[in-house]
Amino acid sequence: MPVRLEADLAVPARATLGEGPVWDERAGLLYWVDILGRAVHRFDPGTGEDASFAVPQPVGALCLDPAGGLVLALADGFARCGPDGGGLERIGRTEAGAPFRVEDPAVRFNDGKADAAGRFYAGTMAWNERDPIGALYVLEADETVRLVLEGVAVSNGLAWSADGRALFYVDSPTGRVDRFDVDPGTGALTGRRVAFEIPRSAGVPDGMAMDATGCLWIALWDGSGVCRYSPSGECLARVDVPVSRPTSVAFGGAGRTELFVTTARIGLSDRVLEVEPLSGGLFRCAVGVAGAPVGRFGA
Hints:
Number of helices: 1
Strand order of the largest sheet: 1-22-21-20-19
Mean pLDDT: 97
Radius of gyration: 17 Å
Number of strands: 25
Oligomer: single chain
Distance between the termini: 40 Å
Shape: globular
Largest sheet: 5 strands, mixed
């Protein structure tokens, strides 16, 4: 049987669609987003303070840059700003040199993460969460954008093996975790295959993070928890969350041994929200295992 743990509320944020937590080890802060609330949050575990700033579009994900700023995946493209949102500017261009934008209004950027080489992988999803019209892109350190995967419905969790030669990836409606071979020099993805499947009864796989032992911690949308899976798909531990819709996870805190969990309120009826008033909050749980380091853009 999986080890059972329980998450505690860190911030009663009531986010519409909390997502994308990223731990800034240098500053000791956790950044996360409310996609539909068009806000970037900065949580200080030492003080319990959670501050936020507004952005002009839905914001699917973010990563850190070496200077302490942020790179954002907005609804239709990429932007850079300071840690408090100052100096927001659009970045990203195609390999032909034209400004990069996602022109299809039926999709928006969703989850994303930087790899150890400093590439920011970010994927799009269909607004209807059904049609496979999304894609996975890479924002390179020189700010060019490459398409690396098409035919995606809801691009979600990303996690790399310690040697950077394998990428684990979630397209949520498939109910699977897929594995790609990665060329460490170019970031090219090949050899896609199914790593393991998650039963629908457990929830829908969403955001994920890898720990230092190579296990994957996956938020289970409509599953009220986060499970720690071995690379072959065995559930080794479960973190129970007192809301239906966990969305993503990140390791942080001292030694990166604390798991932070974002959650959502979107789509829940008033009746459900009466029972789950903490939906949309940020949660935390000491899990007794360290998370893998987090990449920074361009590092």
